[in-house]
Amino acid sequence: MRWTIKPKPKQEDIDALADALKVDDLVAQLLLQRGISTYEEAKNFFRPQLEDLHDPFLMKDMDIAVNRIEEAIANGDNILVYGDYDVDGTTAVALMSSYLLRYYPNVATYIPDRYDEGYGVSFKGIDFAEDNGFTLVIALDCGVKAIDKVAYAKEKGIDFIICDHHRPGTILPSAIAILDPKREDCLYPYDELCGCGVGFKLIQALGSRRGETIDDVIYYLDLVATAIGADIVPITGENRILAFYGLQVINQQPRIGFKAIIDQINKKELTITDVVFIIAPRINAAGRMKHGQYAVNLLTETNMDQAIQFAAEIEKFNTDRRGLDQEITIEALGQIQENQEEEGFTSVVYKDTWHKGVIGIVASRLTETYYRPTLVFTKSGDKLAASARSVRGFDVYNALEGCADYIEQFGGHKYAAGLTLLEEQYNNFKHKFEKVVKESIDPQMLIPEITIDTVIELKDITPKLMRILKQFAPFGPGNMSPIFMAEDLKDTGYAKGVGKEEAHLKVSVVQQGSHRIDGIGFNMGDKLSLVTGRKPFNAVFAIDENEWQGNVSLQLKLKDIK
């Protein structure tokens, strides 16, 4: 692990912000490191306001999209809400369809089959629209690169409105409207929305035409917050506002589908991390193991008994997913270990029987283990399909562009992408991908890095500090949970391995006679020898609360020790 301490802001800037906010230097420093330098910026950070959301009509083509939907409603046309099968796509479809159905009945949903149709807009989906009399398709979290599919639909008299957040190609589809803040000609002030976020901007615009205010659509922010967390988009700017209020909805007035999931877990208040690791995997499991429509059904259900049944089905999908995920990860790790001598700057593995629904999770596991840009392939029909994951700082999407001669289709983001190719191109692609990455990556990126906000002394870790740090949430890219380093710590003799096979490390430390504080390091049991015998050590950690038998105490959530 590389430990990198963020540069400390100028002391005069720390003093000025600390004085303006009446906080100590540590809090002022953490804020400055997040780009917050004034009282007004701090106010917006700690107290996000719905009225600070941008006018949706600032987005390119928004007025066209709203006009076309209003025209469809006036004419009594059938509207098909179409979305990808992952969390962002299914939450977006649930959001758009349930909003429109509030006042217009001729609306249906369509999620493509991961195995039969693959990612994004499909010819089969368009044929379904034609066969069932749909003349308008609203595509969410996909479509911005579906040039041939949209052209095919146009020939059949079917219009498309695309709500996407992926990077467009040089040519845009011939859709009626393309809402995508990443369009070069779109001047919308914030371009990091997720697909569900773009869908929310569309219902916000539709609502404004109907005389609705933001208070009339706040109910849908639970879906948006879930998509923001699951899609790992920055929790900055507008996303921070949407996630902040979305979490409030989840915790205070969750939709029936969420309540059916939450009621199964012993958790009073969910954070964005809980949403990512509890709610999102279950929604995702539907599309991975069976069909994404199961997730849409759960998220739009209004009857609690029915929702409980849907949630039980999805819980089984998630259990099955976990088993497959573990099994395939072991096989994939075995492949990498067998080929260790020839492994270089990338990890690329393939087996034709691996379940397509979990290869993305497996790619993430392999990246965590070997810390290389990683691709996991499986057979999908007459082609191979892969999920790509990257390491911090390296753009895997750009690397795939460099291999485009061997790829049939690809799309995604800087850190996660998907692709298909012909089986006979697998070896050519594998060698080319290794070459492209080798020539473009900084070797330092292949060493896992922990970014540390600042050095801290144990005496400064107080309940008051914890109360302030909690107000930094929701955490995510662009606003990660503060990470600290403390030096010259000594365990008080309580250090031990805990958990299954003593995989985790439990410590109780002091520093220069300070008060004692406990710490837990998950999957750090192998570092026990570094802290026993009162040997001094440095630690990197987040500050956490530990609740046990009704008592709450502060603890160090260890990331690494040296």
From TrEMBL:
Biological-process GO terms, alphabetical: DNA recombination; DNA repair
Sorted UniProt keywords: Exonuclease, Hydrolase, Nuclease
GO molecular function list: 5'-3' exonuclease activity; nucleic acid binding
Limits of the RecJ OB domain: 452-560
Record-linked InterPro entries: DDH_dom, DHH_sf, DHHA1_dom, RecJ, RecJ_OB, SSDNA_exonuclease_RecJ
Domain DDH: 78-228
Superkingdom of the source species: Bacteria
DHHA1 domain span: 349-439
Family recorded in the similarity comment: Belongs to the RecJ family.
Record-linked NCBIfam families: recJ (TIGR00644)
UniProt name for this protein: Single-stranded-DNA-specific exonuclease RecJ
